Q: What sequence folds into this?
């Protein structure tokens, strides 16, 4: 909901996670900077992905291709002709909308009606309430679901063609049925290309038009044969990479959910034609397991299989996550056939084929891709972690329950008081632990306030040095989520922390 989302945004700023870019100049829309804690969290997410995808897979290797690519790349990939968003302007409010996003917002409104019906029935039937059964039999709810399905099908059909008149008609109908924008006066729907252009070269005559890459995938396709040969890779094998991508998003909103400069984590898996459905299922399951391994709640994820497929795909699904503004795409898993390699063969005139020794034949591999936005994953993790807890003494505490493996700071070392030699001992512990973990030293304010600060910052452990420490070489270790404290030996700290934060 709106309130929760506002809290997420202000917490991200207050605790040094995400700042608006160029804030002193009033910012740049849909561009953000990661601050001291945000950069750590982002790096930890990237590493967690890289470990699962590259390190744990003998047959997947990682590369780091350039942002700039030969301009023909984007002709071959279809981005020059078809990487468009359908835009519609409201003549009254002068506001511009992405037509497909607007239609999804109407659907979300209908979904909210379903939620209301469910909540009402739950109240009425109490313990006897069976949600599944209710959803599939209640005529009103079934009607809402059918309506959503119909809207999405109609939108899909129309967006797949040149004729966008029905998209406009659909928006007009929906605005009457469930008002959202408050105005009914729309322009035609127009397609708008999302790529940023720039130039390479000093002199005007020799300058060459370039694009900033709108996805990282093409850097992998054009390197396919180089990697396969030099790495002596045998199909099936994958190439992974993480890196920046740029899109001139028109409806830039929802904080770091939709940015103009963002980072993707992609893996293209090269397979034998005909095996794509097996691999599609494999990667669907694997990627969902990866998400669930972070312990952010199975209820917060769902698959959304695409009915309308992009021209290059023969199967596609999204992993959607429950953001504060509802379920939205977090990751895409696409079966891209041999479309990309074939296109690059055609445009470059170079063969991009694989010789299969077992079959004694060459073929153009098919590709199965997993593609997730790092920033979107950051938002999923961060928004899910932020909670306000009522404590027994009627106070509340703000705590950022980040998965320990992703938390920017793993432990804070706190001397109980700033005298009697306690800071020196705390510093010693800090200096030992910093070899293995990102740790904090904090001696300012009462220890209770320091605990709260670390809770809000997502630090899984606080380690407090007190007078007993001087006698028996033990410290108090406090767990962020349970607030439980126990007494442990200084020499055991490393293992205790490692057990929680290692995967
Ligand atoms: P959307 O429909 O939300 O615009 P998309 O289907 O165009 O996304 P893909 O091209 O499949 O997205 O990109 C793969 C992933 O990259 C997405 O699942 C998302 O996590 C991320 N992503 C795409 N566009 C953006 C953006 N503008 N800002 C942040 N992340 C993005």
A:
């Amino acid at each position: 909901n709106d309130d929760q989302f506002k809290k997420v945004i202000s917490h991200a700023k207050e605790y040094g996670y995400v700042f608006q870019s160029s804030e002193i100049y009033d910012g740049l829309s849909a561009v953000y900077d990661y601050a001291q804690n945000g950069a750590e969290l982002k790096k930890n997410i990237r590493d967690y992905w890289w470990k699962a995808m590259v390190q744990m897979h003998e047959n997947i290797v990682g590369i780091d291709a350039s942002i700039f690519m030969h301009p023909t790349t984007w002709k071959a990939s279809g981005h020059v002709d078809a990487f468009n968003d359908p835009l519609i302007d409201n003549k009254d409010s002068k506001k511009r909308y992405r037509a497909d996003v607007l239609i999804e917002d109407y659907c979300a409104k209908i979904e909210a009606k379903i939620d209301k019906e469910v909540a009402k029935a739950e109240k009425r039937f109490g313990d006897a309430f069976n949600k599944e059964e209710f959803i599939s039999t209640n005529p009103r709810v079934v009607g809402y679901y059918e309506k959503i399905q119909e809207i999405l099908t109609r939108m899909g059909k129309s967006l797949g063609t040149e004729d966008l008149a029905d998209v406009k008609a659909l928006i007009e109908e929906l605005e009457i049925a469930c008002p959202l924008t408050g105005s009914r006066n729309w322009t035609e729907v127009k397609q708008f290309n999302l790529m940023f252009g720039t130039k390479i070269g000093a002199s005007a005559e020799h300058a060459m038009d370039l694009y900033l890459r709108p996805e990282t995938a093409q850097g992998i396709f054009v390197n396919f044969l180089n990697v396969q040969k030099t790495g002596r890779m045998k199909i099936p094998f994958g190439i992974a990479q993480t890196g920046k991508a740029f899109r001139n998003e028109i409806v830039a909103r929802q904080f770091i959910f939709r940015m103009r400069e963002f980072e993707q984590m992609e893996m293209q898996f090269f397979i034998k034609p005909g095996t794509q459905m097996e691999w599609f299922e494999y990667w669907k399951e694997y990627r969902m397991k990866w998400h669930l391994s972070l312990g952010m709640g199975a209820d917060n994820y769902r698959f959304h299989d695409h009915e309308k497929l992009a021209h290059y795909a023969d199967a596609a699904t999204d992993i959607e996550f429950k953001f504060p503004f509802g379920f939205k795409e977090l990751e895409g898993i696409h079966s891209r056939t041999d479309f990309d390699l074939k296109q690059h063969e055609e445009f470059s005139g170079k063969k991009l084929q694989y010789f299969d020794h077992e079959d004694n034949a060459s073929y153009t591999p098919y590709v199965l891709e997993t593609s997730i936005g790092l920033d979107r994953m950051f938002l999923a993790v961060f928004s899910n972690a932020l909670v306000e807890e009522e404590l027994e003494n009627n106070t509340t505490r703000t705590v950022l329950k980040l998965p320990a493996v992703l938390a920017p700071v793993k432990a804070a070392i706190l001397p109980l008081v700033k005298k009697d030699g306690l800071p020196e001992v705390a510093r010693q512990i800090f200096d030992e632990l910093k070899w293995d973990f990102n740790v904090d030293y904090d001696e300012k304010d009462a220890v209770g306030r320091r605990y709260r600060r670390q809770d809000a910052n997502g630090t899984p452990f606080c380690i407090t040095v007190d007078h007993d420490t001087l006698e028996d070489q033990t410290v108090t270790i406090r767990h962020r989520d349970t607030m439980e404290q126990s007494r442990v030996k200084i020499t055991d700290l490393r293992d205790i922390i490692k057990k929680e934060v290692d995967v």
Residues 99-125 form the longest helix (27 residues). The chain has a mean pLDDT of 94. Residues 215, 247, 249, 258-259, 262, 264, 329-332, 371-373, 375-376 surround adenosine-5'-triphosphate (CB under 6 Å).
